[in-house]
Amino acid sequence: MLPSTGDLDPSGTLAALEDVLRRRRQAEVDDLELVLHWCVLHSNRPDDDTPGGERLDDLGGDGTPGVKELALCELAIARGGHTLAARAVVADALDLRHRLPHTWSRVRELHGEVWVARKVATLSRKLSYEQVAIVDHAVAEAIGGQAPSRVIALCEAKVIEADQAAHAARIKEELQRRYVGLSRIDREGLRHVIARVTAGDAADIDVLLDRVADALGKRPEHEGASRDELRADAFGWLARPDDLLALLAGVPEPRRFRHRAVVYVHLHEAALDAGAGVARVEGLGPHTLEQLGRLLGHRHVDVKPVIDLAERVSVDAYEFPEWIKERIHLMHPGDAFPHASRLSRRVDIDHPKPYDPDGPPDQTNSHDGQPLARTGHRAKTHLGYRCTRLPSGETLWRTPHGRHRIVDHLGTRVIDDLEAACWQSDDPSRRSLARSWHLLKTERSLSC
User: Fold this and answer.
1) Is residue 345 domain-shared with residue 440, that is, in the same domain?
2) 412 by DSSP, 3-state: which?
3) What is the mean pLDDT of the chain?
C-alpha cells in the first residue's frame, strides 16, 4: 500500500514511483509464471480422442510444448479475459521460457517491460528454434537499457537477419498485393483514393504533390486555400499530364522534376563482404540489400565519402555547424536523454557542460556534443538537471531530485548515489572501479 501522498515530498514521490514500477513489473512477471505453471499442469496428451474433445494444441513457436486447448477456457476466466487473449499470453509465455531464455531472464529480474518481451515473442514466432537465438541475444542486451521502440525495431531487424529467405518471400508476396482503390462516393460527392505502393514511389508522389500545390497556390483562384486543399487539387492534376506540364512550364527538361533526397544507410562492413545483411535506413527502418536496391530504383545516386568519426573536429563558437552536427548524429543517432526513444535528426545538439564564452577553445566539438529532443533540452537547461560526460564515453545524469542514470551505447542504467559519487571522483582508481562494477553488473544481468 502507498503511504498517504500528502506526506510525500518530491524525492519521496519519485522513490514511491520507482517502487511502484518494480512492483508492477513483478506482478506482470508473476502473472506469466502462473500461466506457465498452468501450461505445465495441462501439457500431457489427452487419453480420450473423442471428436470435438480435448486435444493438445501447439500455440508457441518451434521448440515449445503443446497445451490442452480447452484448458485455456478456465485460464481465461481466472484472468478475467477472453479465450483468445489467453491463447495469446500462453503462446508468448511459452516462447519466452523455451525460445527466448536470455530475454526472459532479463524480464524476470525486472530489467524490462513484460509487454515489450511479449511483442518480441510475437514478432519472432515464425523463426525456427535455432534462428530465434539471434533475436534472443540481441534483445536481451538491449531490453534493460533501450527504450521500448528501439528494442522492437532491433527485434524486427534481427528477425530479418535470422531468416532473410523468408523475409524476401514476404516482400515478394506483399509487392503482389499493391493496389490503388476508390471508396464509395459520400453524401458530399467526395471519395477517398487508397493506395498501397512502395516507399520510394510514395515519397516521389508526395514531393510531386507539394510542387504542384506550390504552383497552384500562386494562382488567384486558389487564394486562401489551405495546404491540404491545394494538395488535394494537385492530386487531381496528376490525371491531366498535359495540363500538369503546362502548369509546371519553365522547367527545361523532365529530369528536373526528379526531387533530390538524401538517404542515410547504416550498414556494417560484414554485410558488404558477405553480400547479405540488414541495413538501417533512417526514417524507414531495417532493409535488406535487395530492398535497398528497390528503394533507390533507377534514381540518380550520388555516393558520398565515408566520414571518419574517430577524428575529433571543433569550432570556436557556441553554435554547432551542420558538418559537426552530421558527425554527432552518425555517432549518436538517438536522443541522449535518459530512457529516451527518439531516433531522428530533428533534435537539438547540446553542450553537456554549459558553454563558457570566456572559456577554453574547442568547447563545441564532435565528441562532446550530444543530441537532445527539444523537451529534454529545455528540461536540462531550466530545471537543474546535471549532465557529465565521463572520460570513458558514458554520460552521467542527475535529475533535480537526485536520481542518477548512466547513458551509454547500451541505453540507460540506474545507479545509486554511492556509484554516482565514484563515477565523478577525482581519484582515477575510484572512477575505474565504478566503471568496472557497472560493466560487471551489466554483463552479469545479460548473461543470466
Assistant:
1) yes
2) strand
3) 85
